[in-house]
From TrEMBL:
The gene is SLAMF6. Residues 1-28 form the signal peptide. Keywords: Glycoprotein, Membrane, Signal, Transmembrane, Transmembrane helix. GO terms for biological process: positive regulation of type II interferon production; T-helper 17 cell lineage commitment. It comes from Oryctolagus cuniculus (Rabbit). It is found in: Membrane. The chain crosses the membrane at residues 240-262. The keyword Transmembrane applies. Gene3D superfamilies: Immunoglobulins. SUPFAM superfamilies: Immunoglobulin (SSF48726). One of its GO terms (cellular component) is external side of plasma membrane. PANTHER family: SIGNALING LYMPHOCYTIC ACTIVATION MOLECULE, SLAM FAMILY MEMBER 6. This is Ig-like domain-containing protein.
Length: 345
């Protein structure tokens, strides 16, 4: 757990006291004093805008530090006295509410703004030397709302063509967009084009990574998930096409079937009538009935033959046709002695 030490408000007299206390250690070092830096290269610290950051300070192990002075771009920010009566003096009033210090006297900056960008130094004065720790503070905006835009289409060989674009809501010059593809292959560009074959039936995931020196975001998409939609739409389109094609054909088949059924039913009805009375269909009969018990004479005319004057039949010759006449149930019973004689003219 890090404990922060806030600088206490000081009066003008205390400020002058601190100033005169630190001057001998800064300017009046003896001949054996060594001025050194803890590192030749400044430590680069990345901060996020409107968020806190800490510049870590490592105190010398074998020497007792008397005064620590923090500077920003060469100007003093605060003076700290680790030993004896510990005290913190903010020498620049503009930093009064913006700085705090940890137990190890590291500098803690709150709510970073663009004004805090630059070089920092911690000047540690011991009894025999002055040690500097140098820093470079960079500030970036936090990346937000990583998005992947996809455009999917079906190619002629039935493969799924996918065009992916990776973007963030607040891009800046320091943002780095890249793609992580199967096989841990990295592509350093925001756009990616891939082809996925559903017949291969393998799952391929693609990850978009947005990075800045301060933070990073990532988002993964599946090729199968992106292509399922277009294949479903393609199947729906073919289903609709088949409906359009088959509906008229089915209607035509139904209409033809009805017509054929009607014609077949009519021919069967006609055939039934012919079966029941073949004689009536071939001949035109004219019946003349006499009184009950008398002979029934019928004159038969052939439909395809014109009437001709036949030679008179002699008295001794006659042509007799015997036919059975079926009477309805309401007709009176005819005696078996009664016969029907048809004289053919």
């Amino acid at each position: 757990m890090t404990v922060l030490r806030s600088p206490a408000p000081v009066t003008t007299a205390e400020s002058m006291f601190w100033l005169f206390l630190s001057l001998p250690f800064v300017f009046c070092l003896g001949p054996g004093t060594v001025v050194s830096q803890s590192s030749s290269t400044p430590l680069v610290v990345n901060g996020i805008l409107w968020e806190p950051v800490t510049l870590p300070l490592q105190l010398p192990a074998k020497e007792s530090v008397v005064i620590i002075t923090w500077l920003h771009n060469g100007a003093s920010i605060a003076v700290l006295q680790p030993n004896g009566r510990p005290g913190i003096l903010v020498t620049n009033p503009a930093w009064q509410k913006r700085v705090n210090f940890t137990q190890s006297y590291s500098l803690w900056l709150n709510n970073l703004t663009e004004a805090e960008v630059g070089s920092y130094s911690a000047q540690m004065t011991t009894e025999n030397s002055v040690i500097f720790s140098n820093y470079t503070l960079r500030i970036f905006r936090r990346l937000r709302n990583l998005q992947i835009t996809s455009h999917v289409q079906l190619s002629e060989n039935r493969t799924c063509e996918i065009h992916l674009t990776c973007s963030v809501e607040n891009p800046n010059d320091n943002a780095w967009l890249r793609w992580q593809t199967p096989g841990n292959t990295s592509l350093s560009e925001p756009n990616l084009t891939i082809s996925w074959d559903p017949r291969n039936d393998s799952e391929h995931n693609y990850t978009c990574i947005a990075e800045t020196p301060a933070n990073n975001l990532s988002l993964t998409v599946s090729a199968r998930g992106l292509c399922e939609g277009i294949f479903n739409k393609e199947n729906e389109r073919w289903d609709f096409t088949w409906i359009i094609i088959m509906a008229p054909l089915i209607s035509i088949v139904i209409i033809v079937g009805i017509i054929f059924w009607c014609k077949r039913r009519g021919s069967l009805h006609l055939s039934t009538q012919q079966t029941q009375s073949p004689v009536e269909s071939m001949w035109n009969l004219e019946y003349t009935s006499g009184s009950p018990g008398s002979t029934v004479y019928a004159q038969v005319t052939h439909p395809s033959r014109e009437k001709e004057n036949l030679a008179p039949v002699k008295n001794n010759e006659s042509v007799t046709i015997y036919s059975t006449v079926n009477h309805s149930k309401e007709s009176k019973h005819i005696s078996s002695r009664t016969t029907a004689l048809d004289n053919v003219i």
